[in-house]
Write a structure and sequence with these properties.
Blueprint: H1 2-21, E1 25-30, E2 36-41, E3 62-66, E4 74-75, H2 85-88, E5 91-95, E6 103-104, E7 117-119, E8 143-145, H3 158-161, E9 169-173, E10 192-196, E11 219-223, E12 245-249, H4 256-261, E13 270-275, E14 288-290, H5 296-299, E15 302-307, E16 313-316, H6 324-328, E17 331-333, E18 341-342, H7 344-352, E19 359-361, E20 402-404, E21 410-412, E22 417-421, E23 428-430, E24 446-450, E25 456-458, E26 479-481, E27 503-505, E28 531-533, E29 556-558, E30 577-579, H8 590-598, E31 603-605, H9 618-626, E32 638-639, E33 642-646, H10 647-650, H11 653-691, H12 693-708, E34 721-726, H13 732-744, E35 749-750, H14 752-755, H15 762-771, E36 773-780, H16 782-786, H17 788-803, E37 810-814, H18 825-829, E38 835-838, H19 846-858
Parallel strand pairs: 2-3, 3-5, 4-6, 5-7, 7-8, 8-9, 9-10, 11-12, 12-13, 13-15, 14-16, 15-17, 16-18, 17-19, 19-23, 22-24, 23-25, 25-26, 26-27, 27-28, 28-29, 29-30, 30-31, 34-35, 34-36, 36-37, 37-38
Antiparallel strand pairs: 1-2, 20-21, 32-33
Length: 861
């Protein structure tokens, strides 16, 4: 006995420690009824009873108690007795979601007399587990959640629920055979009901919602996709006498016909909205044709907003303008339908004659590949895209008639400009994602749109014929979107009359400011323009005058995904956001920095640019680091050479200091290398000049001669002299002998002492004499070799000979039995191409010697 007591005490103590190991928390909270106070969060703690202690400081506040996902099994009066009386009267919300509750007894919640919101979802409750008096004495209860329970077998606990006279919001499951019985008629304050379908399928009969006929339900959401069978009763809305708006989704199993069939009881009522979109069966067996008969109920509803988008409507075979709906409708969304047949008159009426229509969404109506209309009636000219009607003009002045057929036959009369007139009531028109036929550019006319009160116009993804459009006559327009079209040839005057324009989008429209837009005047006069999106347009240069008139109005500019390499705008005083992501911005130049700093209020976004973090751009990086607060995404921007570290991390103190030191080391290394190079050049240049002085002098001399206009550019066969003789000054007598003998033999010989003039450059005169001579003769003696002048002369002559391809015109006369090894180096280099003759030692051989020289001089090289 003692052992059992000790063991039980130990187990109880362990359980107590487990429950208290993770105490409940408090946080500010506003419940579903709008009571501001605190949330006492005790969820997911394996509790079986309510903790006893609530801090005294919360006693004067409204409390919401969260006991979800615990281990409560039975709810009774005793469940809440642990809560102090001064707290229980302040509890306005109770969440028991996720507890496996087997029963809820009579008067279970009466101690929580201020309870306004109760959540019993996911509690495995059935009808029998809720007693008849479970919810009595709750005069403030307005919100009850009962979804994801087990009411399928025996139906709703209607007796228990009928006692909550103050109930306004109910969430509950729907299932096969569900029905709101007559007991629900006591819920005369029930305004909103939310249905959870689960995985069951069911029928909607005329009595399904009959018990809700006394409830003032104004707005209803029947989102029964893949759950409702298609034999929907036409009387289901008779149970909602004050209904003002309804969302209907019978898709998955049923098409739009089931929706139209269910609207009988809404006839002759005034509705705020009917939204029935995406009612498409999983297996499509036939297209939907709207006729006067199957739309008879819809046509008699005076509804302001009708949304029937994406219902696979293929044809409209009647004119809704002539119905009650047509006279009342203010908002119409027919987007995403594959309409391939429409009377011309019906289309014109839609654009012009509906008396109250302000919003029209006609986007994504293409029914045949890339073509807007595929088949039309007899009194509607065959057209593709936006071709113009026969007999139904959209023009202000004249009735323009236009016919276009696939044979390229075209005929246009009376008016070169087609004016599309929209209703004066129109405020929003969306004609996006409707392919306009590519043959449009060949049409010999221009198009203009007139709409007095239109404020929003959407023309995205249309293959829009921008080159054929003239100035838009839209004085009230505030939003224009022409994204994803081809507008590189758009007129710069397109927007000149849209003076109230606030937002302009042309993303991906090839609007790259070349051709007709290169003058940058497209936004001229638009002083209210606040947002501009020019992303993905291949812009490399933005004209300086582009935003000249938006200096004070522009707030947001998107230039993402272009080819910009610098900040292209400046001095936009109120610009708050500038997107330059995914451009070619590698660094910030001085002009780019000036432009960025002039945008004093703007935050720049540069993610995706190839930012260079090399030392060559250290000044740009330093500026970027100092002005980090001017950029909104540096944590997502990476250096092109280090994609593992963001710019933000790169700018951390330790990383950037290390980078600067590395750059300084590189700078010193580069500077040292340059200085070393200059020193080496300074040392070697004089040596080289001295070594190749002859070549330098020769080049200078030739340049001077060319400048003076006396340069002989081509060697002539007719020369003034047969030979120019070069010798040492000490060999003057020998040279004179040489001259006399050869002159006597009829040869013309040029000698420096004979032909050089005093006061002129000897080098220039020597070059002139060589040019005027057929051959050059060197008389090499011991004196010639000893004299330093000979080396310079030899080098000069050899250089000139090779420059003019006359290396074979050199003759060397060797005297004093000098060996070849002692010849000047420059002569030895070309020894293979020169003629060498030795001066004879005996007098008797002189005649042969002179004959040999004469022969060589007369020989044409």
């Amino acid at each position: 006995m003692l052992f059992s007591f000790v063991f039980s005490f130990h187990i109880w103590g362990s359980f107590t420690r487990i429950e208290s190991a993770n105490p409940c928390t408090f946080s500010p909270y506003t419940d579903g009824c709008g009571n501001h106070g605190w949330l006492w969060n005790c969820s997911h703690r394996s509790l079986t009873k309510i903790p006893q202690v609530i801090p005294i400081k919360y006693k004067d506040y409204f409390l919401s108690l969260d006991l979800s996902w615990n281990n409560f099994r039975e709810i009774s009066i005793s469940t809440f007795q642990n809560i102090q009386p001064n707290f229980s009267s302040h509890i306005t919300g109770l969440n028991l979601q996720g507890n496996y509750i087997t029963s809820i007894g009579n008067f279970s919640f009466q101690s929580l007399n201020r309870l306004c919101e109760l959540d019993l979802s996911n509690c495995s409750l059935s009808k029998t587990e809720l007693t008849r008096q479970a919810f009595v004495n709750l005069p403030y209860l307005k919100i009850l959640r009962l979804h994801y329970n087990y009411f399928q077998a025996k139906g709703y606990p209607d007796v228990s629920l009928s006692k909550i006279f103050t109930l306004e919001n109910l969430t509950i499951d729907v299932f096969d055979g569900f029905r709101f019985s007559s007991l629900f008629r006591d819920l005369k304050r029930l305004k909103n009901i939310t249905f959870f379908t689960g995985k069951s399928r069911f029928h909607l009969r005329n009595f399904t919602f009959s018990g809700l006929s006394q409830s003032p339900i104004s707005y209803l959401d029947l989102n029964f996709r893949f759950s409702v069978y298609c034999d929907v009763s036409e009387d289901i809305f008779c149970s909602f006498p004050v209904l003002k708006g309804v969302n209907i989704d019978f898709g998955g199993l049923c098409n739009f016909y089931s929706v139209l069939h269910s609207l009988k009881c809404l006839q002759n009522r005034s509705m705020e909205y009917i939204a029935a979109y995406e009612n498409i069966p999983r297996i499509i067996t036939k297209a939907v044709y709207l006729t006067k008969k199957n739309c008879q109920y819809l046509n008699k509803i005076c509804c302001k907003r009708v949304n029937i988008r994406r219902n696979r409507i293929a044809k409209v075979l009647y004119n809704p303008l002539e119905t009650v709906m047509g006279q009342c409708i203010e908002y119409l969304d027919i987007s995403g339908n594959l309409i391939g047949h429409l009377e011309a008159k019906y289309a014109v009426d839609l654009l012009i004659r509906y008396p109250k229509l302000q919003f029209l969404n006609a986007s994504l109506l293409s029914g045949c590949g890339n073509e807007f209309m595929c088949s039309v009636s007899d009194n509607f000219s065959y057209f593709k895209g936006l071709d113009i009607f026969l007999n139904h003009s959209l023009s202000y002045k004249t009735q323009t008639k236009f016919v276009y057929r696939s044979s390229s036959e075209k005929k246009i009369k009376e008016n070169p400009i087609i004016s599309i007139l929209l209703s004066k009531k129109f405020k929003v028109f969306d004609y996006s994602k409707n392919y306009i036929h590519s043959a449009w550019p060949s049409f010999p006319f221009k198009v203009s749109i007139f709409a007095t009160n239109l404020t929003e116009l959407y023309l995205m993804y249309n293959n829009l014929p921008c080159q054929n459009m003239t100035s838009l006559q839209l004085p009230a327009l505030e939003i224009l979107d022409i994204s994803r079209n081809v507008c590189n040839e758009m007129s710069s005057r397109l927007l000149e009359f849209t003076l109230n324009l606030k937002r302009f989008s042309a993303s991906g429209s090839e609007l790259n400011f070349t051709g007709s837009l290169s003058d940058g005047t497209i936004f001229r006069g638009l002083k209210k323009l606040e947002e501009v999106d020019l992303s993905s347009n291949g812009i490399y240069v933005l004209p300086l005058t582009t935003f000249e008139d938006q200096k004070y109005s522009l707030k947001s500019l998107n230039l993402d995904s272009n080819g910009l390499s610098s900040v292209p705008v400046s001095h936009l005083k109120n610009l708050s956001v500038l997107y330059l992501r995914y451009n070619q911005l590698a660094f910030f130049s001085e002009s780019g920095i000036r432009n960025a700093m002039s945008l004093s209020k703007a935050t720049l976004f540069i993610k995706g640019n190839p930012i260079s973090c090399e030392c060559t751009h250290v000044s740009s990086l330093k500026w970027l680091r100092i002005n980090q607060d001017k950029f909104g995404d540096l944590n997502e921007t990476y250096c092109i050479d280090n994609k593992e570290m963001s710019i933000t991390n790169f700018f951390q103190e330790a990383s950037f200091v290390q980078f600067e030191l590395r750059c300084q080391t590189k700078e010193w290394l580069i500077a040292s290398s340059i200085m070393l190079f200059l020193v080496i050049v300074g040392v070697h240049v004089p040596i080289v000049i001295k070594r190749y002085r002859v070549h330098v002098d020769y080049i200078i001399l030739r340049l001077r001669s060319r400048w003076r206009g006396v340069m002989r550019t081509r060697y002539s066969q007719s020369c003034q002299f047969d030979a120019f003789v070069s010798y040492a000054e000490e060999d003057y007598r020998l040279a004179c002998l040489f001259y006399r003998v050869l002159h006597h033999r009829g040869l013309k010989i040029s000698l420096p002492d004979k032909d050089f003039l005093r006061g002129l450059s000897k080098v220039e005169q020597m070059l002139q004499c060589i040019d005027d001579s057929q051959k050059v003769v060197f008389i090499v003696t011991e004196k010639f070799l000893e004299n330093g002048w000979n080396s310079y002369t030899v080098q000069f002559v050899v250089t000139h000979a090779f420059h003019n391809n006359r290396e074979r015109s050199i003759i060397v006369v060797i005297k004093d039995d000098i060996p070849i090894e002692r010849m000047p180096r420059d002569l030895k280099f070309i020894w293979w191409s020169i003629v060498n003759i030795r001066w004879p030692k005996c007098v008797e051989n002189m005649d042969a010697f002179w004959d040999q020289i004469t022969a060589e001089l007369l020989h044409n090289t």
